[in-house]
Amino acid sequence: MEYGTARSVHISELAWPEYDARVRDGKTPVLIPVGALEQHGPHMSMNPDVLLPTAISERVADRIRALVAPPIAYGYKSQQKSGGGNHMPGTTSLDGLTVTSTIRDVLKELARHGVRRTVLVNGHYENSAFIVEGVDLAQRELRWDGIRDFSTVVLSYWDFVTQEAIDDIYQGEFPGWAVEHGGVLETSLMLHLHPHLVDMEKVCDHAPAQFPPYDFFPIKPEWTPASGCLSSAKRASAQHGETLLKVCVDGISRELARAFD
Ligand SMILES: [Zn+2]
């Protein structure tokens, strides 16, 4: 992808007439990666929740002739049982209302440009309900403006990892997506896509975090492993990352073609 050319999938890299020409008829889907600034253990940068859905969106857009909006780089507060908790240094979060309002505003702006097919590609578990609320508010307000054909797919990329890939990578020791924070999935994808942002020598090899079947507030920091990760990334590799990227891009491309059919 070359900066500033008409072939770019990034709407921010297009001049407005080119963008206008590509979205005006409403047929071109626009993918919006939604991430977070959140610690991911001592071995990795704090931006995988932004970089991973962005990388996946770029490849999907290339395949289905879609565009990618700039990612939303902050997300809802890290929860202890899925992201280590919002008490960790570096983790920088938005209130739910802010996430919801941001999603609503961006969708309504895209609609004003003529876009009618949108996809929110989530990279941070905690965002999920606030994304859905933003979509609902946007669609409600667009209906008030007489726009009834604006559609949105909401997805989290890890839901497209196939059982076959899970069996291959985890060898029967898959801990579940909730405790994959800073674990094999994200670390492998980062090793494949952005290896300079990972230091495998700093991986803390510990058993998956165990939590009671409830949340407790204010949180008990001692519930979170000292590393900030909820499972070990020891098994991570660039090769697994390549596999994970492929199944996500394949699955999302296939399902979007079906959804917008
Ligand atoms: Zn993450």
UniProtKB/TrEMBL annotation:
Task: Name the domain of life.
Answer: Bacteria
Q: Give cofactor(s), names only.
A: Zn(2+)
Q: What is this protein called?
A: Creatininase
Membership in a protein family: Belongs to the creatininase superfamily.
Q: What is the lineage of its organism?
A: Bacteria, Pseudomonadati, Pseudomonadota, Betaproteobacteria, Rhodocyclales
Database matches in Pfam families: Creatininase
What organism does this protein naturally occur in? Aromatoleum toluolicum
InterPro entries in the record, alphabetically?
Creatininase, Creatininase-like_sf, Creatininase/forma_Hydrolase
| Top EC class of this enzyme | hydrolase
Q: Which Enzyme Commission number(s) are on file for it?
A: 3.5.2.10
Keyword terms of this UniProt record? Hydrolase, Metal-binding, Zinc
Q: MF terms per GO, please?
A: creatininase activity
